[in-house]
Every structure is written in C-alpha cells, then in structure tokens.
Amino acid sequence: MADKSDKTEAAAEPVPVDTQTGIFPEFRRLWNGGEHRRAVELAQAAGKLSEAEWAALLAEFPGIVDVVNQ
Asked: Residue 29 is inside which H or E element, if any?
C-alpha cells in the first residue's frame, strides 16, 4: 500500500475566461477612465465572480489590490 506522499499532484489547469464579455468591458472602461473605485464596486456588485475571473482582472489590472485595501 503506497502512502499519500508517493502520489504526485497534478497542477490545476488555468480556466479560460472570456475578457471581452460580462463585466470586463465596463470594468475596463471605468478603470481606464480613472474611476478605479467604481470599477471595483462593479466587480463586487456583479455577484460572485469566479476565482478565474478575479485572476483575470488581477492579471490585467494589478492595482485592484490597492483599491480594495483602501
């Protein structure tokens, strides 16, 4: 019987996110227009964004973390 340490864990495959639909175009418009707080509020009000959607937003707009932490 092999113990759990013998098993290799497969890395999770990234989930593709369509950043041209959903809240992304409006978020991008607000963010690029300087309305960072409103863009973050839009993302939070959109309901429960998936982890992949938040990751896509963070990849494109790393400054989100600063706005959320204010």
From this structure: helix 24-32
